[in-house]
Amino acid sequence: SSILHIAAVVVSGTSVVVYMYTWCLSSSIHISAVVVSMFSTIICGFLFLLVVKRLPEHVQVDDPAVVKRLAKKLERQQIPLRSDYGYKVSLFSHLHQYSRKAPLTQQLSIPSTVIHPSIVRLGLQYSQGIVAGSNARSVALLHAFKQVIRDYTTPPNEELSRDLVNKLKPYISFLNQCRPLSASMGNAIKYIKKEISNIPSQCKEEEAKTKLLTCIDRYIEEKIVLAAKAISKYAIEKISDGDVILVYGCSSLVNNILCEAFEKSRKFRVIVVDSRPRLEGREALRRLVQRGISCTYVLISALSYILPEVSKVFLGAHALLANGYVMSRVGTSQIALVARTFNVPVLVCCETYKFCEKVQTDSFVSNELDDPDDLMVTRKGKTQLENWQDVSSLGLLNLVYDVTPPDFVDLVITDLGMIPCTSVPVVLRVKNLDQ
Amino acid sequence: MQQPSKMNEEELVEYFRTQMRTDPDMASAVAAIRTLLEFLRRDKGETILGLRESLKWATDCLTEVDSSVAVSSGGELFLRFISLTSLEHQDLSRCKKVMEERGELFLEKISLSRTKVAKLCHTFIKDGAKILTHSSSRVVLRVLEKAAAEKKRFTVYVTESQPDTAGKQMADALRRINVPVTVVLDAAVGYVLEKVDLVIVGAEGVVESGGIINKIGTYQMAVCSKAHNKPFYVVAESFKFVRLYPLNQQDVPDRFKYKADTLRTVSDLSDEHPMIDYTPPSLITLLFTDLGVLTPSAVSDELIKLYL
């Protein structure tokens, strides 16, 4: 691919040079000006290539050059490389597929000198699914980073603002190996790195550390806790008495909204839709029933049966992309599609810190493949797919996320207010202006 | 505490009604904003916060008189426009003067908005076009007047628009400028749509999703034009942009659906017929405003700029 880049530059450079030469001839400017313009176009070409974004490595797993580069990077950072497991369906062969039975921590030496123990614990919690859900993962990440900062001491002849950022890089690679980072975690990491590099060099270490800890606390407080309160306030306006609300899976934000609305004495009932293999709806059901909300539980295959009763659909989101698409748990786009055909309004609730600059129109390009062994089910002592690896033409696909187009979503409730799905780029622009 | 020249509720309502009477061509929102400006001039408040509170109270009073969406949205935008400036002066009277000047600037801008909309929209009316419109809208009338002045030949179909048969007034106004016009029944919209080239309607309010709130019957017309693949254009001034987000018809608040006197006198609203309906943005092709020609998804962008 580097040859292609050079060829592209050469072709564009020569074409611009030919144009400029003929223009100079026609207006009789000295030949040295042509030489100067030639050099400047070639330099501009190279700069352009540097600015153009490269594809991230975690979606190029089928490219051996990229895999080699990643292995070299991890070796340099002294982090073990996690190997893929099982046969991958060809459409998704560019993504990683790991097994839960082989966590990365087994390959680490204890005590690990490179990686902080709270990060090791966090990585294990992610890869085993103990900490799941984008808010929970971000908060756990921020708390682990707080512990890292507390235990950090600046080495002699180093500046805190630069050294701490470099210390965090192997931790982030490690966590990425345990489970691919979510969009919310990515934004949180960007924020922390910015805060660290903004520490002035004459700041004393203790002062800098307390400042960073308060920054992180404030981020959690503002972007997650208070945002949830603001979103509940807006969402409760949309819940009227006698509503039948459909929710999917377990979104901490949507559960929060429903509990708040119930406390404000709105009369409604909830239908919880669930799907295999995660069966997260059971957790949501447990939380809602504990508060006293009357609930119904169905699997996603009964969706079109239950939808004529429903008046509104509330969905959570993992991330909101820059072109207005909603990335959420697999099954969400199905619910939005069927709700649209039944003319039921679909409301997505999402905090602004989950908005990301990525653009995606389908669920193939960038996704996450979970452990394929989760799809095996044991009934009456028999496991049907026990020897699926022996069948060469059989692949098990356990997708985690999917993308919902904005035409299926009627309203997005964020902490900034209620916006249509197509206004996400406006919010990103306003946020960038603030920063 | 009642000061002698401060406006109280009756004076406010009387001033508003006088404004509406003297210039019947003026939008109710413009009359409301003129009233609020007069209220601001006569207000004897001591603090900026008190001023804002009393302006909010005045807007609420006016909304009770005329429960259209435009009055409440116009009032809120007026308040935001005049406070969107540096009010760091020490002297309260200086601050008030700045606010009054900005209020007059706002009024001047919105008085020109109808002309701006007409200038943008009349180019979309081609020679020989057949236009369908709903009920009586002064903005649509201005657009058609401009198109007629540009020597374009077109025919207009107007719906009768029950229960107040406002369509007949529109037809009379168009006959006066020698435009061939036919009044059709509200039920005949589907029948007449195959003859029509484009549909232009006004709006009482433009909501955050890019949809509009307009006289009852607009939603039907939009659904029929979508089925016939005819363009559905909306003309509205920018002060009609309101911070509402209805999901469906029943999500529109009751205070906009019914006339103000109905809300006051009747206790059970389920027998009353609503005067407005909500048209979702998926059925609208373009919106012509004094901020430019917008697609429905761009309305939210403009609203964020206006309100934040």
Automatic annotation (TrEMBL), chain A:
Family to which the UniProt record says this protein belongs: Belongs to the eIF-2B alpha/beta/delta subunits family.
GO biological process: animal organ development; central nervous system development
Subunit structure comment from the entry: Component of the translation initiation factor 2B (eIF2B) complex which is a heterodecamer of two sets of five different subunits: alpha, beta, gamma, delta and epsilon. Subunits alpha, beta and delta comprise a regulatory subcomplex and subunits epsilon and gamma comprise a catalytic subcomplex. Within the complex, the hexameric regulatory complex resides at the center, with the two heterodimeric catalytic subcomplexes bound on opposite sides.
Keywords tagged on the record: Cytoplasm, Initiation factor, Membrane, Protein biosynthesis, Transmembrane, Transmembrane helix
Transmembrane portions of the chain: 6-24, 31-52
GO cellular component terms listed in the entry, alphabetical order: cytosol; eukaryotic translation initiation factor 2B complex
Compartment annotation: Cytoplasm, Cytosol
Listed name of the protein: Translation initiation factor eIF2B subunit delta
Gene3D superfamilies recorded: Translation initiation factor eif-2b, domain 2
Major location category of this protein: cytoplasm
Species this protein is from: Oncorhynchus tshawytscha (Chinook salmon)
GO molecular function: guanyl-nucleotide exchange factor activity; translation initiation factor activity
InterPro entries: IF-2B-related, IF_2B-like_C, NagB/RpiA_transferase-like
Record function comment: Acts as a component of the translation initiation factor 2B (eIF2B) complex, which catalyzes the exchange of GDP for GTP on eukaryotic initiation factor 2 (eIF2) gamma subunit. Its guanine nucleotide exchange factor activity is repressed when bound to eIF2 complex phosphorylated on the alpha subunit, thereby limiting the amount of methionyl-initiator methionine tRNA available to the ribosome and consequently global translation is repressed.
Pfam families in the cross-refs: IF-2B (PF01008)
From TrEMBL, chain B:
Chief place where the protein resides: cytoplasm
The keyword tRNA processing is annotated on this UniProt entry: no
InterPro entries on file: eIF2B_alpha/beta/delta, elF-2B_alpha_N, IF-2B-related, IF_2B-like_C, NagB/RpiA_transferase-like
Keywords of this entry: Cytoplasm, Initiation factor, Protein biosynthesis
Cross-referenced SUPFAM superfamilies: NagB/RpiA/CoA transferase-like (SSF100950)
Subcellular location: Cytoplasm, Cytosol
Signal peptide as annotated in the record: none
GO CC terms: cytosol; eukaryotic translation initiation factor 2B complex
Gene Ontology MF terms: guanyl-nucleotide exchange factor activity; translation initiation factor activity
Highest taxon, organism lineage: Eukaryota
Function per UniProt: Acts as a component of the translation initiation factor 2B (eIF2B) complex, which catalyzes the exchange of GDP for GTP on eukaryotic initiation factor 2 (eIF2) gamma subunit. Its guanine nucleotide exchange factor activity is repressed when bound to eIF2 complex phosphorylated on the alpha subunit, thereby limiting the amount of methionyl-initiator methionine tRNA available to the ribosome and consequently global translation is repressed.
Subunit structure: Component of the translation initiation factor 2B (eIF2B) complex which is a heterodecamer of two sets of five different subunits: alpha, beta, gamma, delta and epsilon. Subunits alpha, beta and delta comprise a regulatory subcomplex and subunits epsilon and gamma comprise a catalytic subcomplex. Within the complex, the hexameric regulatory complex resides at the center, with the two heterodimeric catalytic subcomplexes bound on opposite sides.
Protein family according to the UniProt entry: Belongs to the eIF-2B alpha/beta/delta subunits family.
Protein name in the entry: Translation initiation factor eIF2B subunit alpha
Organism whose genome encodes this protein: Oncorhynchus tshawytscha
